[in-house]
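May I ask you for just one protein sequence along with its backbone structure tokens in two labelled lines?

_____
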Amino acid sequence: MSRRLVLPATDRVLSRQTGWVRGHWEALADHLLDSLDPYFSPGSALIELPGRPSRSGTASDALEGFARSFMLAAFRIAGVRGEGCEALIERYARGVANGANPDHPESWLRLTPRSQQMVEAAAIAVALHESREWIWDRLDTRAQEHVAEWLGGFIGSTTHDNNWRLFQVVSEQFLASVGAPYSQDDIDGGLDRIEDWYVGDGWYSDGDGQNFDNYIGWAMHLYPALWTRMAAATPGAAYDDRLKVYRERLALFLEDAVHLVGNDGAPVYQGRSLTYRMAAAAPYWMGAIMDSTPLSPGQTRRLCSGIARHFVQHGVPDERGLLTLGWYDTFLPTTQQYSGPGSPYWASKGFVGLLLPPEHPVWSAPEESIPLDDEDQIRAMPAPGWIVHNSRHDQLVRLINHGADHAPLAEPEGVEPAVDSHYDRLAYSNHAGPELADNAPRIDNLTALVDGAGHTSTRGRIRRLGMGSRTASSWHKAWLGSEGPWAIETTSLVDGNWEIRCSLVEGPVGSLVRSGGYAVAANSLPEATAGEGWASARTAEGLQSSVVGLYGYTSAGVHRGLGVNAFGPHSATPYLTAAHDGEPLVLVHAVLLTRDELAPQALAEGIDVRVDGREITITLPGGRTETLSLGNR
């Protein structure tokens, strides 16, 4: 069934950048919720959506569809104090009563250790808390007891040791707030555990290691903030000290996070669970809700509305009104094995701003510019090991990655480590994504060894070497099958739209070193050109990716992909190569992602490179000189 999204007229008086006001958010929320009607079970406790099932099975997937959409419904209901939401209230109240009832045909799966239903239980707990006056309070005593018994499966149980610890925290805090059995040790233990993962500047790692991605905003900051709201509703709960810490950290995080979204609203494509899409707006809204943000109310709405509008403009939700498994269109390589048809409805987190009433300044104040609206931005983020360099005129965010790998702390001995293309690249962007095919060569945004059979080394655990305001360095072990490891060290230097990569590459005699730029993708075949020491790919929409050899490279080319990129079925990646003679090899190349129409042959004019052993002196356009040293591991 086709369901057309109908939005209010744009309001360029209140929202001069996006045209979106609260009415747009309410209309989008209503459209998403109404479009679920055909997929509700008779008792309203499950939502069985079309699409590839997750590894947890269809029963879990149906619970997921209910739980995640319930969060959206709860934010919608609470923000208008239930007015005009009678049908929504009745449906989800009935669903909760039936799902929690162990004797009902639609009863939810019980909570078992590390089970997917723990994730969904936390969504239900959050939704019940935020809509307490309209749903929890209208449940009869027996239904409330059933809910408490079901959520009680968390008590004394075990979750995965990452953001899942917070699912236990919020679920048991809700139990405490309604006078049901709970474990204070579980709550304190989960909140204490995330302290081990705090790395400074407002950043957490999502578990042990270097796990930096959207989960920092939409989980590691979101759930502690929601917990404080539950604790405030719990008689006798002690939360003031933690509240102060969480507010300070959230404000620090947002100073960085504001630079991870383009001025057209496109978020950076990096990390797992990207199919949650608009959930990227969650931490910015929470900053306003918690009164802990460096952004003004008008900046907050401008940023969040930009994100939602961007996805709507790119066909989200689809013609059925559904959120599908993908980025814009359905694209399964964006997802993980735990992703099911209901998973994308964690986009509901991005609507948490609806909790703020219509008269709140975040809705009533005029939109204000975010930094990228006014000028190009370069920002070093030492905690995650990133530098972002963003350009105002072409709406591009470029994230240089020397710190986030999502790799286990203990690497396997003697074998190539498993890697994830959503983490292992040297750079990511908001308009270009990595190639995502298990059987295709990894070329984009990597410097790698290639053997005679075409096998390519990977970038697993990233070992940081240092960071400045415009430079970042790291190295990693490179394997060719069971041979290795060799070391590949890379220093990135950012100058305006350019990134210059300087590498010291160990490797076997006869192997090839290949360095790729960004993969660009579109609905039509990108134009590909290459010459002596340079290569370039450009989409029909004008997005251009280029690489230029500055030292040590001998050839160049463009690799084409089909059906392996979230940004379009046809993709192309420019690359450079150099033969390896068995001695550590110094290589320097420039990487560019732009919408400017530039002649590739002239891309590096004005950049001069001098190499003396492992010391590299780079003279940039305008005369500024940088000297970089390799071999520092």
In short: The chain is about 25% helix and 20% strand. The CA atoms of residues 563 and 569 lie 4 Å apart.
